[in-house]
From TrEMBL:
Protein name as catalogued: Lysine-specific permease
Chief location: membrane
Lineage: superkingdom: Eukaryota
GO terms assigned for molecular function: amino acid transmembrane transporter activity
Cellular component GO terms, alphabetical: membrane
UniProtKB keywords: Amino-acid transport, Membrane, Transmembrane, Transmembrane helix, Transport
UniProt region (Disordered), positions on chain: 1-20
Domain Amino acid permease/ SLC12A: 29-480
Pfam families for the chain: AA_permease (PF00324)
Organism: Piptocephalis cylindrospora
Length: 535
């Protein structure tokens, strides 16, 4: 099958201009996007602050608990996205399986979450490049990053996917190298000092008690946000029934492993009372990764980590633009946003959705330069809590999806991918996400006196989401969809599409049978098996 025809298989419907989004993402793209999506500044910079605030034990516990939440959430998403692979899926799932008003609120919530996150990455570009070029106005670097991200997304979905593949690969390799070097440093093989468990003694393992661990619990949630992007990409995957389950099965435990191993090594090597840890989120030279590399007596560690963090910023900005634009595109296609945002160009790119996302992200960034920056801080809080709301929405949608699936007489064998531990999984994820959302203002309430401004900032996303939900519900007079009327068919792949081979052999996109055999032979070898396990 020619590439252009293979890549334009219908992804949930036709664009207003008569063109479709194109299924240009291969299995390797989705796997690496999922794997690298949560490896970012939360791990490279903010993880040091987590260890300093809660101690090495408290940080590990917090990240582990959030990891369980994310595991069940991504399981729920995987079941729905393989059965119904539509672009910008969250609003569609919420509208079909719960309530059209819920889907409306969920879609707009997810869009402004990522549009605002783009502004965060533009601000981060100033910090990163300022480390090398302190005399250059930081807004120049923010503009450069915006142009790069905009260009990658405007080319085609392949532009986003290929860039994200290499960005994510760089981040994963950095974490792997860090873990190897960290083990050597802790064992005394390099650096000249053997590290024991001194940092876990004398009450240092759980600093701050429950309050310290709970505060890190919220920070850990922000670090893991982005895992769900694999659900957004399903509608543009060349083979979602194969790619999405593979991405979910092979990715989550590796992400959790990376975080747990990295945090454990940081807790072993760096004392939680080291003042450098608390400065890690604003000083590249104080990143816990940089500190461990310096303990190994590796020169230039700060510059290497600054380069990796720059790639991380580009990756996060690239993903922010993609996730927001596809969500807005879907909202427009469903009549929940202006029609112009549901159009695509001849390359299958939703140009207007990308442009308006870029404009909103740039305006949000500029708000940080005006006045005291209070508006910008509110936008940051809004983006953070919106991610948790999206997780809650995914879990609720899955609970209703499975109930409707069984109620309408379907058999579980029809599901391309089946989530584990239903109904416990989605119920646990829903309750856990709700608790995290309600706990956003914990530190503000415990302050003396109560920090009213911080309380408002922490919870500003909740009333906005409720206004969108119930406002749409009142105006459009929607109701919770009865199980018997839940639409389980529209957008579902036809049997012809299920049987169609679109040339995505293990995501490598090769068409030569000789090349395919060679790749398979390499993967059967011991080195190939190791690389396959890692990547």
């Amino acid at each position: 099958m020619p590439d252009d025809k293979a890549e334009s298989i219908q992804s949930g419907g036709r664009g207003r201009g008569g063109r479709e989004l194109k299924r240009g993402l291969k299995t390797r793209h989705l796997t690496m996007i999922s794997l690298g999506g949560t490896i970012g500044t939360g791990l490279f910079l903010a993880s040091g602050g987590s260890v300093a605030e809660a101690g090495p034990g408290g940080a590990l516990l917090a990240y582990g608990l959030i990891g369980i939440l994310v595991y069940f959430m991504i399981q729920s998403l995987g079941e729905m996205a393989t059965y119904l692979p539509v672009t910008g899926s969250f609003s569609t799932y919420g509208a079909r399986f719960v309530d059209p008003a819920f889907g409306f609120a969920l879609g707009w919530n997810y869009w402004y979450s990522w549009a605002t996150t783009l502004a965060v990455e533009l601000s981060a570009a100033e910090l990163v490049m300022g480390y090398w070029f302190p005399n250059v106005n930081g807004i120049v670097w923010s503009a450069v990053v915006l142009v790069i991200v905009l260009a990658l997304n405007m080319i085609s979905v392949k532009g986003y996917g290929e860039a994200e593949y290499w960005f994510s690969l760089t981040k994963v390799l950095t974490v792997v190298v860090f873990i190897v070097i960290g083990i050597l440093v802790a064992a005394g093989a390099v650096g000249g000092h053997t590290y024991g468990v001194e940092n876990w003694k004398g009450g240092q393992a759980f600093l701050g008690g429950f309050g310290g661990t709970f505060s890190v619990l919220l920070a850990a949630g922000f670090s893991f946000q982005g895992t769900e992007i694999v659900g957004v990409t399903a509608g543009e995957s060349s083979n979602p029934r194969k790619a999405v389950p593979k991405a979910i099965r092979q990715v989550f435990w590796r992400i959790l492993l990376f975080y747990v191993c990295a945090l454990f090594l940081i807790g072993l090597i760096i004392s939680p009372d080291d003042p450098a840890l608390l400065n890690g989120d604003s000083n590249i030279g104080s990143s816990p990764f940089t500190l461990v590399f310096k303990a190994a007596k590796l020169s230039g560690a700060d510059h290497v980590m600054n380069a990796v963090i720059l790639i991380t910023v580009l990756s996060a900005g690239n993903s922010s633009m993609y996730a927001a634009s596809r969500t807005l595109y879907t909202l427009a296609r469903e009549g929940k946003a202006p029609r112009i945002f549901g159009t695509t160009n001849r390359h299958g790119v939703p140009v207007w959705s990308i442009l308006v996302t870029a404009v909103i992200g740039a305006l949000a960034f500029l708000s940080s330069l005006l006045g005291t920056g209070k508006v910008y801080n509110w936008l940051l809080s809004l983006a953070g809590i919106s991610g948790f709301i999206a997780w809650l929405g995914i879990s609720m949608s899955h609970y209703r999806f499975r109930k409707a699936f069984i109620y309408q007489g379907h058999d579980l064998s029809e599901l391309p991918y089946r989530a584990m531990l239903y109904p416990f999984g989605p119920i646990f994820a829903t309750v856990a996400a709700a608790l995290v959302i309600l706990g956003q203002g914990y530190s503000s309430f415990t302050a003396t006196p109560i920090a009213v401004d911080q309380v408002i900032s922490a919870y500003i996303g909740i009333p906005l989401f409720l206004i969108l939900w119930f406002g749409y519900k009142i105006i459009c007079k929607t109701k919770v969809v009865p199980l018997a009327q839940v639409d389980l068919d529209t957008g579902r792949p036809t049997q012809q599409e299920k049987d169609m081979d679109v040339g995505d052999d293990e995501g490598m996109g090769v068409s030569s049978s000789k090349m395919v055999r060679m790749v398979r032979m390499i993967r059967r070898s011991p080195p190939g098996k190791v690389l396959e396990w890692i990547f």
